[in-house]
Design brief:
- The chain is mostly beta strands and 627 residues long.
- It folds into four domains: 27-167, no CATH class; 216-251; 295-507, TolB, C-terminal domain (Neuraminidase, 6 Propeller); 549-627, no CATH class.
- The strands form 17 sheets. Strands 1-28-27-26-25 form a five-stranded mixed sheet, with no helix packed on it.
- A hairpin with a 4-residue loop joins strand 34 and strand 35 (436-441).
- The radius of gyration is 31 Å and the shape is globular.
- The protein starts with 5 loop residues before the first strand and ends in an 8-residue tail after the last strand.
- The relative contact order is 0.08.
- It binds 2-acetamido-2-deoxy-beta-D-glucopyranose (NAG) (4 copies).
- It is a single-pass membrane protein.
- Residues 213-252 form the EGF-like domain.
């Protein structure tokens, strides 16, 4: 079926925020001032709007050019841990080569953990390598904040063993009888001096006598399910709209019953998690490999592995897009109704209108995307990316492809089933290697592992909502509460193999303001950088005019009596008479945006005409006959 699909050009999005500033050390500055990652300079693909990043490239293709222009470094030597450039620029921005973020520590089994998880008496790696070099603090009871253990004799010996010097507090040699040992709260005498203690909600600062507030909200998981505000000595939890606070930090979804959208035996349908009944909605011909929905507009979307993306409305389905090879995952911007998807064969993230009329590439640079989820209320896209050197990462970008960052390296985890708890602002996924469910906040903080989640074989699909995990293994659908140890509390929901599933609930698609509401462009992408809050994409052949609308490419030409415009739309050309005159048009210029023409008549008098009104105005020039 051909409904005149318009494919737009692959727009390249770049960071325009620092147009007027300096670029940082990892970046290269285009001649127009825009900063791009230094790796993109002279990589054979134009990234600057003015093409300057691929001009004057003195290094052979793929070689790295030192930031100070001092030389070229072959690809294999860049990021090898040793600086070849005199300014060291070949060793910057190298997270992808080391396989973990620079703020992470790499376990023996190659799992990445945040550096502050080292020596915290928790086996965060799974192979305990993060706790092995810390020594045992069991008897000694003195532990530096960096994890090192000390014996009593090393306390107050005049040599700082802990990196924060907490083994040499200002209370060394002091006694509690004397001005409370200097303690701000309680004081306990020790052989080495006065030990200050703090009430709950506070912790001792490194100086040894001041108690300072604990930021409970900075814990990697909890104490609040949704929103957390730290207060002196305590914290406050709040729930998102539509959820009821249970008083203990938990929030409970109100409204419609929780359902799981999935497919089974050639039927797309909903599983009510209370009644455990599968309610069929549609029959389908080929099994979906991806499935999503727009609850407000009552659309269901799915994709098969024959290049088709389908849409269903009121139990009727249609092919929305065909010829989309390798679709891997689908997601909806429920605020605008626009669809997003990833393609493993085209190695790009696409977006398309809900009516099937236009598609466009959002990101194709340095990406090989797998599963994708959207957070339109935050204007973010998240996806599992198969990157350079076979590194697998979870990436985040604004919905127009700008502000891209790597949130976490998950290569060794073998991740799948990426999903978003929209209310909790948390991503969750299955780690096949760790047999766990993993989570981070949408800002990249709060890395957390639900250990020993899977017994036997790991789940193949996952959804998270309202404090529950919904997941399916090869044979069954289960639900498990987040706050109780798994395995024991798995509740059986349905006997079926469900490789694709998602929670269907209005609170997973909360309504809110979209910057695209006021745009008139064919495809509108919310942006973090554009001053109007969105980027317009125009189908091929059309050009974005100002902010917010697309126009066909137009040219104007004149005969002695008439000015014409030629508008190129898809495969036809429309010729329009813009203006006629019997004064012998000598020269003219168009002001498309204002809709007027400036022209010269046969005796060299300059005139201007507004095209909408048949009115001519004479512009007085000093010397008629000069044009
Ligand atoms: C909070 O309270 C509810 C209802 O009393 C209970 O079901 C739930 O398990 C509690 N959550 C936590 C994290 O303790
Ligand atoms: C986007 O990136 C720019 C610089 O690259 C930064 O200044 C800006 O704060 C970022 N915006 C968001 C919302 O992260
Ligand atoms: C292009 O031309 C073909 C055949 O002439 C026609 O079927 C199709 O609808 C046209 N497309 C557009 C966008 O006008
Ligand atoms: C050009 O415009 C001037 C001023 O309106 C007019 O006097 C003159 O006759 C025009 N020339 C021609 C060739 O019509």
């Amino acid at each position: 079926m051909d409904r005149g699909l318009l494919i737009c050009c692959a727009a390249v999005f770049i960071l325009v925020s620092d147009v007027c500033g300096e670029c940082n050390r990892n970046q290269w500055q285009c001649y127009d001032g825009v900063c791009i990652p230094h790796r993109w300079h002279c990589d054979g693909v134009g990234d600057c709007q003015d093409g300057s990043d691929e001009m004057a490239c003195s290094c052979p293709p793929k070689a790295f050019e030192c930031a100070d222009g001092s030389g070229c470094v072959t690809e294999s030597l860049a990021c090898d841990g040793r600086a070849q450039c005199s300014d060291g620029s070949d060793e910057l921005d190298c997270d992808w080569r080391s396989g973990c973020l620079s703020s992470d520590w790499k376990c023996r089994n190659n799992i990445c953990i945040p550096q502050n998880f080292l020596c915290n008496e928790v086996n965060d790696c799974g192979d305990n390598s993060d706790e092995e070099t810390c020594g045992s603090c069991m008897k000694m009871k003195i532990r530096c904040s960096d994890g090192r253990c000390l014996n009593q004799r090393e306390m107050c010996d005049g040599v700082a063993q802990c990196t924060d010097r907490s083994d040499e507090p200002h209370t060394c040699g002091k006694s509690c009888r004397n001005a409370n040992g200097g303690c701000s709260h309680t004081c306990v005498d020790q052989t080495w001096g006065a030990l200050c203690n703090c009430p709950s909600g506070m912790t001792l600062s490194a100086n040894g006598f001041d108690c300072i507030d604990v930021d409970e909200c900075s814990q990697s998981f909890g104490p609040c399910m949704h929103l957390c505000t730290n207060t002196p000595g305590s914290f406050r939890c709040l729930c998102q709209n539509g959820f009821k606070s249970l008083g203990n930090g938990s929030c409970e979804a109100q409204g419609f019953p929780v359902k799981i959208l999935t497919f089974r035996r050639s039927l797309i349908g909903l599983v009510n998690v209370k009644t455990r009944v599968f309610e069929p909605l549609l029959s389908i011909e080929s099994d979906p490999i991806a499935l999503t929905y727009d609850i407000q507009r009552n659309f269901i979307y799915w994709a098969d592995n024959h290049g088709n993306i389908y849409k269903a409305y009121n139990h009727k389905s249609m092919v929305l897009y065909s010829g989309q090879p390798g679709v891997r995952s689908l997601a909806v911007d429920w605020l605008t109704g626009q669809l997003y998807w990833t393609s493993v064969t085209q190695k790009a993230i696409f977006t398309g209108t809900a009516d099937g009329s236009s598609t466009c590439v959002v990101i194709s640079k340095d990406t090989d995307p797998g599963e994708i989820v959207l957070s339109p209320v935050e204007s973010f896209i998240f996806w599992i990316n198969n990157g350079m050197s076979e590194e697998i990462t979870i990436e985040r970008t604004a919905m127009d492809g700008s502000n891209r960052t790597t949130l976490i390296f998950v290569t060794a985890q073998i991740p799948k089933g990426l999903t978003l708890d929209v209310a909790a602002r948390r991503l969750f996924w299955i780690s096949e290697f760790k047999m766990s469910i993993e989570s981070i906040r949408t800002d990249g903080s709060g890395s957390y592992t639900f250990w020993n989640f899977f017994q036997g074989s790991p789940g193949q699909s996952l959804a998270v909502f309202n404090g529950w995990f919904y997941w399916a293994d090869e044979k069954r659908l289960w639900q498990t509460p987040q706050n109780l140890p798994p395995a024991k509390y798995n509740e059986f929901l349905l006997k079926a193999s469900l490789p694709v599933l998602t929670v269907y609930h209005e609170l997973q698609q909360p309504q809110g303001f979209s910057p695209c509401k006021n745009s008139r462009c064919t495809l509108c992408l919310p942006s973090k950088e554009s001053p109007v809050g969105f980027t317009c994409l125009c189908p091929e052949g059309m050009l974005p005019v100002a902010y917010g609308s697309c126009e066909n490419f137009k040219v104007a030409y004149a005969t002695a009596m008439v000015i014409y415009s030629l508008e190129f739309t898809g495969n036809t050309t429309i010729k329009t008479e813009l203006f006629t005159s019997d004064e012998d048009i000598q020269a003219f210029d168009m002001h498309w945006k204002r809709g007027c023409v400036v022209w010269c008549n046969g005796t060299g008098h300059v005139k201007t005409n507004k095209l909408s009104q048949d009115m001519s105005e004479y512009i007085l020039t000093l010397k008629p006959g000069m044009c």
